Amino acid sequence: MANQEPLPEKEDISLFTKKVWITVGVITLLVIIIFILKAAFNVLLMVFAGALLAVYFHGLANLLERKIKIGHRWCLLVGVILTLLLIGALFWFLGAKISLQVGELTQDMPKILASVENRLGRTDIGRKLLHYLTDGSGDKMMGSFQEIFRTSFGVVGDIYIVLFIGIFFTVNPGLYREGIIKLIPSKGKERARNVLRRLDFTLKGWLKGMLIAMFFIAALSFIGLTIIGVPMSLALAFLAGLLNFIPNFGPLIAMLPAVLIGFTESANTALLIALLYIAIQAIESNIVTPMIQNVMIKIPPALIIISQVLFGTLTGALGIILATPLLIVVIVIVDELYVKQQKYS
């Protein structure tokens, strides 16, 4: 009579197959979550932009509260009204002219690019530079600059969403702050409150510095371009101040159309405009920013570029715009939850 032996091979194969299917399921779930997060990241960035807007309004309210000695809610209302009146006055007095000049700049850009291409094509160095920038195609350079302007001014929908999110956050910030704290375990709630307080303080200091720096850049750019005699100087100065919100890449993007317009006059004019922008940025980076952002944490410049490339790759223009405040949030959280704990452990 033959002995019946167990079949461990079949059991092992069944167990292996089960593990394989579990692994495939987990990987599939992770891939789906990653795609969902990537698709939703733009929404999260708009929520963060709304939070920044609320931080600005409450920072302005705190400033007014120290000056006029009335309740915070009244100061908040006054701050919102003053901001809306300031923006309205800006567009009332300058909006039509800026809009007209921006329209002219966008319309004239193909002619300006053609003129620059013609001037560069007269020299060997210019032809090599032109071929390097366009890969032999002038249409590529023209399309690139049109895309820059489309990105800079085609964000009405995002602004609308951010504005309403910012208003809701401004009206009742405690509701959302406590909602976040409720998700934290009991022993970590006090630490979470400290982190949120430090984030609020740091972002207020950063926003204050950025707004002053943007105004400084716009004013100096307008004065310098007017002295040089560059057409559409108001639109170019407005663009320079606005794009200064984006470190590293913003000033470069703002300088390009001004230099191109200078090329239509002469190479010397273009060089003078480039030197003007470089000088203004040098003053802003080395003198103005350190003075007005003394409450902001120190951020290594390389980290700003890395964060801009990372968030820009994930979400495009909105990620590049918000890369610096997002980096500030990450640095504060890491410092509060890891670095300080290492000191006391």
H and E string: HHHHHHHHHHHHH
Give the count of structural domains: 1
Poorly predicted parts: 144-154
SS field, number of helical segments: 13
Q: What's the average pLDDT?
A: 76
Please report the total strand number as a whole number. 0
Pfam families: AI-2E_transport
Transmembrane segments: 20-37, 43-64, 76-95, 148-171, 211-240, 252-280, 317-339
Keywords: Membrane, Transmembrane, Transmembrane helix
Family: Belongs to the autoinducer-2 exporter (AI-2E) (TC 2.A.86) family.
Task: Explain how this protein is built.
By secondary structure, this protein is mostly helical. It has one domain. It has 13 helices and no strands. It has helices at 8-68, 72-120, 124-134, 138-153, 156-171, 173-182, 189-228, 233-243, 249-265, 267-292, 301-315, 317-321, 323-344. Helix 1 (8-68) crosses helix 5 (156-171) and helix 1 (8-68) packs across helix 7 (189-228). The longest helix has 61 residues, at 8-68. The chain is globular and about 75 Å long. Mean pLDDT is 76; it is low at 144-154.
Describe how the helices and strands are arranged.
Layout (H helix, E strand, L loop, with lengths): L7 H61 L3 H49 L3 H11 L3 H16 L2 H16 L1 H10 L6 H40 L4 H11 L5 H17 L1 H26 L8 H15 L1 H5 L1 H22 L1
Helix pairs in contact: 1-2, 1-5, 1-7, 2-4, 2-8, 2-9, 7-8, 7-10, 7-13, 8-9, 9-10, 11-13
